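Hi there, hope your week has been kind to you so far. Would you mind checking whether the tokens look sensible for this chain? I owe you a coffee for this, so here goes:
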Amino acid sequence: MINENKKQLIKEISECVEILDDAIVMHDVHIKDPKTATPESQKEMMELMLDTRDCILRQLRASEKDK
């Protein structure tokens, strides 16, 4: 049986994956139609990737505290 901490960790990692999925979709659109790769959309994609990294790092730090 999964304990509550593990359930929460899975939920939070799933949120990180959702953010990354958004960046991947945007990148795919840019590859298929380079005209869509505006400076604004590239900035948005970078922000999504940075948000993903921050999300993962938060989970790593939290898991270190639990040890």
The chain has two helices and no strands.
